[in-house]
Amino acid sequence: MRSTFRIAVSLAALITFTVGAAACGDNQESQPAATSGPTTPTGSASTLPSTLPTSAETLIEVSVADGRVSPSPDRRVEVTQGDNVRIVITSDQADEVHVHGYELEAEVDAGRPTTLEFVADQPGSFEVELHELDPGLLFTLLVR
Amino acid sequence: MSPVAGTRPGQTEDWLVLAHGIGSRQDLPIPFSYALVGAVVALVVSFAALGWLWREPRLTGRAAGRPVPAPVQGLLDSAGFRWALRVLGLLLVGFVVMAAAFGPDLETNPTATWVYVLFWVGLVPVSILFGPVWRQLNPLRTIHRGIAALLGTRPEQGLRPLPARIGYWPAAVSLFAFTWLELVAPDRTTLPVLRTFFAVYFVVHLMAAVVYGSHWFDRGDGFEAYSTLLGHLSPLGRRFDGRLVIRSPFNSLDALAPAASLVATIAVMLGSTAYDGFSNSPVWIRFSTDSDLSTRQSGTLGLLGFVLLVLVTYSVATWLAGVLGRQRGLESEGWRGLPTAFAHSIIPIAAGYLIAHYFSLVVFEGQHALIYASDPLGRGWNLFGTAERGVDFTVVSVTTIAVVQVLAIVIGHICGVVSAHDRAVRLFPRRQAVAGQLPLLFLMIGYTVGGLLLLFAG
């Protein structure tokens, strides 16, 4: 029985090693997110490494008419951690927009564009939704 | 940091919007290279296992293990320790019931995070480490014990025996009901919904336990079955002679007793987690927005579909295994043959899915649970000194999460393959043992590659 366990342990070690190696090989991709991740909630821009480019701004426009979201809500918008994000929503119905995770909310008046602006400072995948619409998803924001 | 900068949702409706069960932050898709490496490792190990692993069964299940020192067993089995666990269970659940009954229906009420994160997801690592812990903590068991004492009966004694053919069916149904609540139900984080669900759950299971005795909880209470099945991955177990032993997790899995609808219960565990990942994917989002179904309708179909997908693919694979392995006369082996005989090997795969999907949730939303716990009634209290804290999103990095996710899926796969291998060489004639393993091996590769795809595309 001990040998069963030994085989299992060596398999697990092998996997850990291989996946770990893959993780290291992936540094170019994952490292920026990992290094800028540990900025503390109070950390200001001055604590960021100077090698990071000055934060870019991403404009995301979305409109809702007759209960349909355009562009299609399966859209994923990728931004870099630390970027400014500006979301402009136009809906034919009054509603409320919610950026998950960042817990930002704003009223949306019928027919008038609403703008939400924030710094995407935490990594992860976040849904942007309307509360009254069903299904309410507008798009998914990927912060890397 | 911006999470606190904006206006916070404060309405009674939709206040803690838990889009995919729980948690407003989801994991980033894993890098393609991670998914690829994970899939390649799973494939290589699978086929290496066929040729390389033992040819005679080695696992001895309930007979295996090295006993823990007698004083340790004495303490763990003592009435005092058992009562301490029961009281702990009553206190923890009592705390949540208090918050649910008397706290405000606001985002800051700890009920939802305690139910969906600390309890439901936290039960996974605790059971994997220590075995079927919910049996010991379950307040329903303790309350039922009290009822039995009032009636002057023993808790195990019901009005009638629980028919064996019922097996885990009630547990599978109650697990499905809870995962539907967690993943599909509208307003699932609001107090009226949670109160209603758990009030019904408590009443139904207590009444059933009065009728069938406390054995009902083993087979009927979804949370106990969930904890017990995951607990079969624990190195701590009980040998056939009653000794507490330390044993290889493979022997713990091997020791799982066959029962009716074990397969269905495990299918709910695996299928619901897979659906949770899939419901995030652009494919599903496009389907559900293009269809005329409401979110509740499409979610119910999706959840049911994934559970059935697991059930059907697994049943077909074990049927094929029986054909190729020329297995005969398995009735003596347990409940209606091969599907049940191999069910234990799917548990590590389900556990891998659970860890991959909920690791970051415990780490991040778990903090919310502890923060909100300081002020359960919304009166400005700070019981545990955590009320003023915010969630620290820097505890684990995006890279760490991705590595944990891939490792969980791949290690779960390997444990599944090894468990199924040993069972196959025991059940099939030697010459057909390799052929008999192939269907299940391909199925497991499918589940694993599917799991990695969900992480990559989800």
Structure characterization notes:
The complex is a heterodimer of chains A (144) and B (458). With 144 residues, chain A is an alpha+beta fold. In chain A, 24% of the residues lie in helices and 38% in strands. Chain A has two helices and nine strands, in the order H-H-E-E-E-E-E-E-E-E-E. In chain A, strands 3-9-8-5-6 form a five-stranded mixed β-sheet, with no helix packed on it. Chain A is globular, with a radius of gyration of 21 Å. Residues 21-51 of chain A have low confidence and may be disordered. Chain B has 458 residues and is mostly helical. Chain B has a three-stranded antiparallel β-sheet, with no helix packed on it. Chain B is globular, with a radius of gyration of 22 Å. Chains A and B meet through helix 1, helix 2, strand 6, strand 8 and strand 9 of A and strand 1, helix 1, helix 12, helix 14 and helix 18 of B. Strand 8 of chain A pairs antiparallel with strand 1 (25-26) of chain B.
List low-pLDDT spans of chain B: 1-21
Biggest sheet layout of chain A: 5 strands, mixed
- Write down the secondary-structure element order of chain A: HHEEEEEEEEE
DSSP helix count of chain B? 19
Q: Give helix % range of chain B.
A: 55-70%
What would you report as the Rg of chain A, rounded to the nearest angstrom? Answer: 21 Å
**Separation, N- and C-terminal Cα atoms of chain B:** 27 Å
Judged by helices, strands and strand pairing, the structural class of chain B is: mainly alpha
Proportion of beta-strand residues of chain B: under 5%
Strand pairing plus helix content of chain A: what structural class? alpha+beta
Largest sheet of chain B: 3 strands, antiparallel
Strand order of the largest sheet of chain B: 2-4-3
Outline of chain B, from the CA principal axes? globular
Low confidence ranges of chain A: 21-51
Number of extended strands of chain B = 4
> Mean pLDDT of chain A, as a whole number?
74
**Helical stretch count of chain A?**
2
